[in-house]
Amino acid sequence: MSDYVVEAESIVRTFNDGDVQALKGVSLRVPRGEVFGLLGPNGSGKTTMVRILSTILAPTSGRATVDGFDVVRSPQEVRRRIGLAGQYATVDENLTGLENLRMIGALNHLHKPYVASRAKELLEDFGLTDAAGRNVKTYSGGMRRRLDLAAALVASPPVLFLDEPTTGLDPQSRQDLWSIIETLVEGGTTVLLTTQYLEEADRLCKQLVVLDKGSIIAEGTSQELKTSLGATVLSLTFHSTLDAARGLELIRDVSPKPANIEGTVVELTVEGGPASAAEALRRLDAANVALAGLTLREPSLDDVFLSLTGHKAEDEVATAEDATAKRKGRAS
Amino acid sequence: MSVVTETIHAEKSSLRWAVSDVLTMARRNLLAIVRIPTALVFSILQPIMFVLLFRYIFGAGAIAVNIPGGYVNYLLPGIIVQTTIFGAVGTAIGLAEDLQHGLIERFRALPMSRMAVLAGRTVSDLGRNVLVLLIMTGVGFLVGFRPHGGFVNYVLACLITLLFAYCLSWGFAFIGLAAPNSEAAQAMTFPLIFPLTFASGIFVQVSSMPGWLQGFATYQPVSEVTKAVRYLMDGPNSLLPSAGSAIWVSIIWSVGLIALLGPLATAKYKKVA
Question: Of B170, B196, B203, B166, whose CA–CA distance to B76 is shortest?
């Protein structure tokens, strides 16, 4: 048994006869029993990668195995070992929660009595027992997402693919889902999770890769990624956006790392720590630009992302993948 | 993990699994018909409205046919063909919806039979058409339909209708998979279904239509099916002394359609989902 549950090698996927390159040679290895994060903005190729690993889409070139089985040559074997859930919460609206789980159980070719007890257990674990007999149409977004995840777990798959599992959820539902995922991993499940929320990756993922425009631009643990930035973030709050813009001009060359401005807040990644911060403050003082607030903090994954890609993680990048999602009427 | 996998998975031959998957999908589709009020209206109420419309409004005097029992005996076999063909629109809408909601993606990541989505959809439509036929027969009797062809021929007529509608629904499956959403799927079926059902012998005699339309209306498959069904249900009369080649031509059309449309829909399914 390999230590890596998912192994992908140089996966390339093009759309529209090669016009759009969604994945440009992505390789990754997911260790058994961990949450592995695929981090990136919209259109970075995360969903395409998950669709390839879950046998929905064939790669244009490259090779991938799940639990030792090739996704192209032995798709049925792969399908017996995976669960798939995600932001589109693909459950049947016209069925009840229980009927959905029964249907997925039957299509997974499981014994009926097993499905019955497993469904009961999952509905209970995910707080859906009371809603089990109701049509999914009446479910809230959070309930749908939990049912979607429950459906992915009916067959107790050793590998779980979660495509942006918390996108569009309220904070409480997000917390609930995080706890569920943590419990699953404690039970031995391997999870590959895509997200554009750095907080999510930080909380759940042991290892992660950062995907941007179809290529991996960084990989490691979230701590490693932060350390690789090797810097402190100086966050300055000004009294007005005009002051903030002036301030940024004055202090920009204190550090070669990227700076970011949002409203009255300027964030500067500095290498020299306090010394650079002091230099920045001296310059602002000399130019008579007053500050409303100041913090010096360790970099977050957000900063890592900004530093790697030059844009923030939540920035919209329209691509063929988005266009495909929109055609299917499920744009987020 | 592999130990767990073996014990919870039931053992059956792959053919039996395929049948089981098709039935699971069909059952799910039929449940949806019961639970979506618009689907219920579309598939059950609308055919009844058509019967009442043509029986009591157009058929009350505007359309006259000189056969035993009058227009109602002419109408009912035709309208039975029409409603089963209209039912095939449901195939297009249902598949477009599943695609739109991402359900087909989920199905594709399951170890189920590859053909179960399309086969399950067409089989559930066949099931619904059986129900529609029973209802139409009942409603027909209530409004005065008295078939003279005998029970066996009546059943045979129903089977020819169901076979034709089933084969045609593979074409509608293709449309459902090609459409961007369910509304568009529905809209795309109308330009097909209207000439097929109205420019046919379903409601009126083809000889009453303008000359330029008669060629199409006489030889298009729905007219052939209608002729066969009408002959079998009503029995021979002055209007239709024999079925001629209509029964065989209907069956050949059905087989020809599925031989063409089945692979077309399957190829589309592999491509889009």
Answer: B203
Say whether domain A231-298 belongs to CATH 3.30.70: yes
Q: Point out the residue among A80, A94, A330 whose CB comes nearest to the CB of B36.
A: A94
Distance from CA of A244 to the nearest CA of B (A): 45
Name the DSSP letter for residue A18: T
Ordered DSSP codes for A26-39: EEEEEETTSEEEEE
pTM: 0.80
What is the domain partition of chain A in residue ranges? Answer: 4-226, 231-298
Say if A328 is an interface residue toward chain B (CB within 8 Å).
Answer: yes
Picking from B217, B231, B69, B83, the residue whose alpha carbon sits closest to that of residue B157 is B231
Q: How would CATH label the architecture of A4-226?
A: 3-Layer(aba) Sandwich (3.40)
Beta carbons of B200 and B128 less than 8 angstroms apart: no
pLDDT in tens, A259-318: 788 888 988 877 766 777 888 889 999 988 888 888 887 777 777 777 777 766 554 443
Please give the C-alpha separations between residue B81 and each of B78, B221, B231, in angstroms, as whole numbers. 5, 11, 13
The tens digit of pLDDT for each residue in B185-195 reads 999 998 999 99
* Beta-carbon contacts below 8 Å between A and B: 97
B106 touches chain A (CB under 8 A): yes
